[in-house]
Write a structure and sequence with these properties.
Bound molecules: zinc ion
Largest sheet: 3 strands, antiparallel
Number of helices: 7
Radius of gyration: 16 Å
Strand order of the largest sheet: 1-2-3
Order of helices and strands: HHEEEHHHHH
Structural class: mainly alpha
Distance between the termini: 24 Å
Number of strands: 3
Shape: elongated
Number of domains: 1
Strand content: 5-15%
């Protein structure tokens, strides 16, 4: 499993190399079926103040793509949290010790974050990111890869 783990981390790290790619992915899946302001229900938006956020044109509220996801107020760097969530879905038995060792994040922080991920899995909570991960892992269609494929011409290994 060590080897498989390393391959998965490497593959995933290429796809989500920086905050920008994580936020872009969250933005895509969050508003896949269109934007609805959680504050007032309006469906028109413009660009928000922060990267990949959207601003409701009626109430002017900025909605972060991380709002109401696992990553809301998460203290772990986004790219690391993405990887930890992915590995927790992909390898259900992976321990917080293993994550601590791999990512140099405090074990209790890893433990608590994993607990959040697992509660989304167990209770079928509608965390958009976990849903996207699970549908990717369980079906053949790899949404996590789609971008990498699009940009295959530009990305060199
Ligand atoms: Zn609004």
């Amino acid at each position: 499993m060590e080897q498989e783990l390393k391959i998965e981390i490497e593959r995933f790290s290429k796809r989500f190399a920086n905050d920008e790619s994580c936020l872009k992915f969250l933005e895509q899946i969050k508003w896949e079926e269109g934007f609805v302001c959680p504050n007032c229900g309006h469906t028109n938006y413009c660009k928000g103040a922060t990267s990949h956020s959207r601003r409701c044109t009626r109430c002017k509220k900025d909605i972060s793509p991380m709002a109401n996801t696992l990553f809301h107020r998460c203290r772990i760097p986004l790219t690391v949290a993405f990887k930890m969530a992915y590995l927790t879905c992909k390898f259900p038995d992976i321990s917080s010790y293993a994550l601590n060792k791999e990512f140099n994040v405090r074990r209790m922080t890893c433990y608590n974050f994993q607990r959040k991920v697992r509660s989304c899995l167990d209770e079928g909570k509608h965390d958009i990111f976990v849903k996207a991960l699970v549908s990717t892992l369980s079906s053949g269609t790899d949404r996590l890869q789609s971008d990498a494929v699009d940009k295959a011409g530009n990305d060199k290994l």
